[in-house]
């Protein structure tokens, strides 16, 4: 408030006193002439009030503000100007007090009470007839417009929730876009708290807001270094997107189709995005499983574009299958996926390519089975490796342009052979270490080889000191280390949901993460 001079304060106060509630032409003309500068002054007042810790502190620092705001509240010209009204109401909200001691505090509290009355009116309209709801649409639009500047005030949450519920029930578009935008931005920035039902209503009313929440989660994960080493599933569960969907197919499909699939299509080798999609799906399925059977929709409703036979084997978590049956289960998954790819390899039409993409996207969502395959490859016998290597290759290279799938499968087998010798032989043979480094340098197969390499570091039984030494020699580039941390984060999430906990494996994984971060 240092920019506001005493002269300016005296001038504004004198104007407010002269205007009063006068509706004469001269008074209205003078008020209109000064509205622009008044808005600038109110903005400065607001900035000063927002820095105060209490109403008493605000009144002590700015003794003029109570009388000034109080007089403006009854000025018809100021209240009729939308921008001036917003600024005035925001200043009043800063002065809200549980125990009002003066006129302006009572005015602010009285306005809050009006909000409660409006909330009750909207709620009643939701329970009334459709004709009543339609009659109130004009009032709803007016209320929403008045709320735009105040969406972050805690006292506004019930009214905002009621407005969103009304608009969903009456099926009308009576809420202006600025109101919707302000709510969405306030939720994402955690400056507004709404009940789950209100958030679901917002997202159903405006899928753009749902997409914004999904993109915000993507950006926060990609930009947060700690997410790679801390619990990624906790990060996802704490996000807005993991509210209870309550069987809302439209919301889940919108997140997956409108956001995740588009991102994967553009950057299909981004391991961070894949890890996030995998964890999001796992968290969602856990919540879905927690519902009562009679309240639960069939899985097919949430994955409408996928070949039905793929749903049961892929959406069944590894923790729900006995460990001794993992190999057979993965062979089953491989055979089903291979059947989908055969039409594409035979030169099928667009539908064949689409089917392959849908199958691959489901595999990305259920990436815990790919991680399980990579784990089994650490100690797998050669005769059992083919189906596991094929699955890993399809995960990293779903397309078959130029018959690359068979080429990449050969690379995967070569890498697996070198890794077996490197991690299961003492001392580690130098030539196999060099071969693995060379394969990692290939832009086409780097993530595939890295995926295999990291599972050997986590699940092989060699001493941690030797594993750390190998890791330091093989993973030397910063970009590769970052990718490695995302793969380890994905492995960690799967282990967190395992039926039993292996402390040795968890300790080794933690050591690897720390080593990569330090270097």
Q: What would you say this structure looks like, in words?
A:
The two termini are 48 Å apart. Among the domains are: 117 residues, no CATH class; 211 residues, no CATH class. About 1% of the residues have low confidence. α10 crosses α12. The longest helix has 26 residues. It has 519 residues and is mainly α. Helices cover 71% and strands 0% of the residues. This is Fanconi anemia group C protein-like. Pfam families: Fanconi_C. It comes from Sinocyclocheilus rhinocerous.
Kindly summarize this structure in a few lines.
With 519 residues, the protein is an all-alpha fold. 71% of the residues lie in helices and 0% in strands.
Secondary structure elements and pairings:
Layout: H1 6-19, H2 25-50, H3 55-61, H4 65-73, H5 76-80, H6 82-94, H7 103-127, H8 130-135, H9 137-147, H10 157-170, H11 177-188, H12 196-205, H13 207-223, H14 232-237, H15 249-266, H16 271-289, H17 311-315, H18 326-345, H19 350-365, H20 368-379, H21 385-396, H22 404-424, H23 430-440, H24 446-459, H25 464-474, H26 478-496, H27 503-518
């Amino acid at each position: 408030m240092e920019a506001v001079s005493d002269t300016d304060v005296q001038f504004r106060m004198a104007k407010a006193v002269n205007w009063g509630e006068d509706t004469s032409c001269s008074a209205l003309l003078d008020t209109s002439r000064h509205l622009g500068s008044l808005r600038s002054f109110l903005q400065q007042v607001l900035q000063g009030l927002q820095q105060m810790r209490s109403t008493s502190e605000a009144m002590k620092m700015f003794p003029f503000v109570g009388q000034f705001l109080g007089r403006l509240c009854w000025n018809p010209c100021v209240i009729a100007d939308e921008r001036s009204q917003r600024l005035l109401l925001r200043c009043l909200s800063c002065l809200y007090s549980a125990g009002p001691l003066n006129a302006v505090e009572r005015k602010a509290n009285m306005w809050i009470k009006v909000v409660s009355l409006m909330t009750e009116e909207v709620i009643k309209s939701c329970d009334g007839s459709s004709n009543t709801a339609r009659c109130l649409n004009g009032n709803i639009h007016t209320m929403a417009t008045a709320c735009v500047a105040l969406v972050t005030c805690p006292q506004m949450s019930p009214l905002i929730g009621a407005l969103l519920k009304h608009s969903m029930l009456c099926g009308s578009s009576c809420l202006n876009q600025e109101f919707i935008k302000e709510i969405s931005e306030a939720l994402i920035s955690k400056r507004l708290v709404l009940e789950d039902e209100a958030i679901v209503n917002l997202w159903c009313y405006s899928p753009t807001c749902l997409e914004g929440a999904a993109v915000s989660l993507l950006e926060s994960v990609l930009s947060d270094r700690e997410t790679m080493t801390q619990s990624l599933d906790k990060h996802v569960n704490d996000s807005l997107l993991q509210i209870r969907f309550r069987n809302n197919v439209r919301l889940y499909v919108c997140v997956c189709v409108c956001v995740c699939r588009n991102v994967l299509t553009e950057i299909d080798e981004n391991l961070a995005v894949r890890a996030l999609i995998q964890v999001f799906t796992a968290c969602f399925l856990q919540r879905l499983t927690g519902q009562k059977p009679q309240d639960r929709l069939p899985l097919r409703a949430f994955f409408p574009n996928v070949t039905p036979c793929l749903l049961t084997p892929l959406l069944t978590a590894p923790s729900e299958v006995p460990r001794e049956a993992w190999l057979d289960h993965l062979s089953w998954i491989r055979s089903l996926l291979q059947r989908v790819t055969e039409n594409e390899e035979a030169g099928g039409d667009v539908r064949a390519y689409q089917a392959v993409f849908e199958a691959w996207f489901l595999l990305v969502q259920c990436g815990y089975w790919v991680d399980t395959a990579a784990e089994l490859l650490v100690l797998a016998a050669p005769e059992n490796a083919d189906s596991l290597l094929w699955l890993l290759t399809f995960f990293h290279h779903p397309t078959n342009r130029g018959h690359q799938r068979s080429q990449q499968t050969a690379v995967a087998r070569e890498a697996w052979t070198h890794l077996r010798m490197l991690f299961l032989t003492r001392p580690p043979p130098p030539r196999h270490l060099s071969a693995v480094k060379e394969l990692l340098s290939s832009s086409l197969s780097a993530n595939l080889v890295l995926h295999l390499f990291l599972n050997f570091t986590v699940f092989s039984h060699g001493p941690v000191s030797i594993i750390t030494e190998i890791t330091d020699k093989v993973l030397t580039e910063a970009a590769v280390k970052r990718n490695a941390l995302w793969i380890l984060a994905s492995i960690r999430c799967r282990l967190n949901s395992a039926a039993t906990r292996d402390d040795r494996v968890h300790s080794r994984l933690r050591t690897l993460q720390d080593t990569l971060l330090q270097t």
